[in-house]
Amino acid sequence: MAHINFLDETLRDGQQSLWGMRMQAGMALPVTPIIDQTGYNTISLAGSSLFEVLIRHCQEDPWAGLDMLVKSMPNTPLRAGCRSNGSVTFGHTPDALMDIWVDRLCVHGLRSFWLYDVLFNIEQMHRLAKVAKRYDCQVAGTMLFTLSPVHDDAFWADKADKLSALPEVDSLLLYDTGGVLDRDRIKTLIPAIKAKARGKPIELHSNNMLAQSAKAYCDAVEFGVTVLHTAARSMANGPSIPSIDIMVKNMEALGHTHNIDTSKLKVVSDHFRSVAKAAGYLHDQHYEYDVTSLTTQIPGGMMGTLRNQLIQQNMLDKLPEVLEEVALVRRELGYPGMATPFAQLVGTVAVLNIVTGKRYSAVPDEVIQYAAGYYGQPPAPIDAEAMDRIMSAPRAREIIATPPEQPDRAELHRRHGTNGDDDELLLRALVPAADIERMRAAGPVRQDFPTLSSSELDQVAKLMQVATLPVVQIRSSELELSMRR
Fold this sequence. Notes:
By secondary structure, the protein is α/β, with parallel strands linked by helices. Helix content is 47%, strand content 11%. Strand 6, helix 9 (183-194) and strand 7 form a beta-alpha-beta unit. It is globular, with a radius of gyration of 23 Å.
């Protein structure tokens, strides 16, 4: 039997997968002190894409909101996620800006990082790990899992060996964005990774896309995983990860120990359910097993993007065809892991191929950069015909002739006019100035969110959906309601 630690993803992947990263600070602050006292070994909190969405879509200052959240959870290490060579953009972010991003998150109180590079540029990951270690942070070297003919046990053992060899890496994180791990894969994969982990803990994060991730967690613990990523029940499952409630129950049933105070779980779950209902966001999700997900391996958050792209073209009926095309494009591009930025790039190419009716007739700049090797070496060679079409794109010659720039900190401040203010530099580098001005015009960060909820209000909401008359009036001894269109 083992002692199992739990990492909370309610405030990061839970809300990213279910709410499209639109969780404002005031939506969480009423219960973050409770989350802090629940017994998690780490709480996942921040990422650059979350910052962008808060600025552009919520008009909220992400630095101010982050400071409030950090202050409300003083007892548990707080984690941020970071791609080695990209912040928000699917393209390249200069090394100097990535270093500043990690440094400033540390200054604002983050003390744990999961660092990843889908193509495993270990040197880039190592550089950022060194920045985090200046603040004595914990660092998880991340392996974004995917199924393909080239991603065998030897592939993952090699990556585990290289990551665990870095003295700055404290744990290995196996991150299954598509939720495709099952017992047959786990029983050889986890031992292969463990054999190269140098005794460092192995974490598992599996988005519950096929409704099998809770079972995968149980199997993974049997073979050596000791840290599981979960979310509050109302923010779990579907494209999110398994709930803390079921995994604590499962671990206890299997004879393992943990530090979770289960008396605190319901109030947190109830709170986020109320917020989700008030804001019109998803909650309490459940997915069924869909075998096609094994070939597409589309991450939870990306499915909504694909649907929106097709809706804009009035072609939502083409979604099954696009999903088939995703699997084909992924094979042609050498089986890149289906995580940012490659999941989005593969999906975009697939949509363009279907919408235009001609494969690779429209090629995003980032796909040309990928084919040119600017992101790193693909896991398998790119299909020759696909490569020819990509390199025949109108922009290909120009992109190949101008590799990504590497301006230093001084040059970045000069370009953005930020006078040495690193927090402001990061905001200016993330989003256009007009979005920042709208954010600041909206005023200070709210510290609460209206979550009016009752059985009567639920009935009113249902009535609003079905009523067709211009005026509806209802009276009872306890309620008087009048609705007018």
